[in-house]
Design goal:
transmembrane helix; transmembrane; 287 residues; 0% strand; globular; 80% helix; mainly alpha; MetI-like fold
């Protein structure tokens, strides 16, 4: 060790080597402490276990079919309804309502978030109104919206739109407000116009918050639809479930629950895939 001390160059290399080793050790610890990314399909383990326990309880007689039908019986019923043409028209009607409200809510929510997040006048005019809507449950608006729009399709799409708009606005607005001030100063130094700033800095910076809101929205549009389709409808999955309740058909009710669950999971998966594509550059940079 004394030989290394007498030569500063070698001593410096030793210190660098030791510090690099310490850093690698710390990184190794961090990697071990960080949860690994779940493999594809691992999130389905929990729901599958619930279905297995549910099926077992039904077959052992713990659950009566008049109280809650078995998953296997619901699958048979759903297949029969699909084969005889009963299910598909109602599924398409529900999907049309849900995705029309989703599209309007996401579009208007992003526009309002941009106006409020990038301008003081926009925030003064918009943010308070959205926060008030956030505090008012969507179902509390049903009587008033029925007076405005009647009890047809427009009422249901409008209420889904208002339910979706709030999380889209809140999360996108928060992401815009959280953009690194260094990026703003850099844009100002480079002399970017407002349009260029929005396109090159604001929108990319808001993407994380937007995708969080989109995942909430694709689930929320179906959640709102479940209740709205119980109000004077002759088509839709909610209508089938409501009619099945009157006749005590628990298998049809479970079919409807399965459809809502599957559509929600599929929609969330699609958003996750789009999000992973949009942020592919982060993995390439090791971010």
């Amino acid at each position: 060790m004394t030989d290394f001390i007498s030569y500063p160059y070698l001593s410096g290399r030793l210190e660098k080597t030791q510090s690099a080793g310490d850093q690698q050790s710390e990184v190794g610890k961090a990697v071990r402490l960080t949860p690994r990314r779940l493999p594809t399909g691992a999130r389905l383990i929990g729901p599958l276990l619930v279905l297995i326990v549910w099926e077992a309880a039904s077959r052992l007689g713990i659950l009566s079919p008049y109280t809650l039908t078995a998953p296997s019986a619901a699958v048979v019923t759903g297949y029969g309804m699909l084969a005889d043409g009963t299910l598909l028209p109602h599924l398409l009607a529900s999907a049309g309502r849900a995705y029309a409200g989703l599209f309007l809510g996401v579009t208007v929510g992003v526009i309002l978030a941009l106006l409020s997040g990038l301008t003081q006048s926009g925030e003064a005019l918009i943010d308070g109104v959205v926060q008030i809507k956030r505090a008012v449950p969507t179902l509390a608006l049903v009587p008033l919206v029925i007076i405005w729009l009647g009890i047809g399709e427009a009422m249901k799409i409008f209420l889904i739109f208002t339910a979706v708009l709030v999380p889209v606005y809140i999360n996108t607005h928060a992401a815009l407000r959280g953009i690194d001030i260094g990026h703003v100063e850099l844009a100002r130094t480079l002399g970017l116009t407002r349009g260029e700033f929005i396109r090159k800095v604001a929108l990319p910076g808001a993407l994380p918050g937007f995708f969080v809101s989109l995942r909430l929205a694709v689930t929320l549009c179906w959640t709102a639809l479940v209740v709205l389709e119980l109000i004077n409808t002759q088509t839709g999955i909610g209508y089938l479930m409501n009619r099945a309740r009157d006749w005590g058909q628990t298998d049809v009710i479970v079919v409807g629950i399965f459809i809502y669950a599957i559509l929600g999971i599929v929609s969330d998966t699609v958003v996750r895939l789009i999000e992973s594509r949009a942020f592919a550059y982060r993995r390439a940079l090791g971010a």
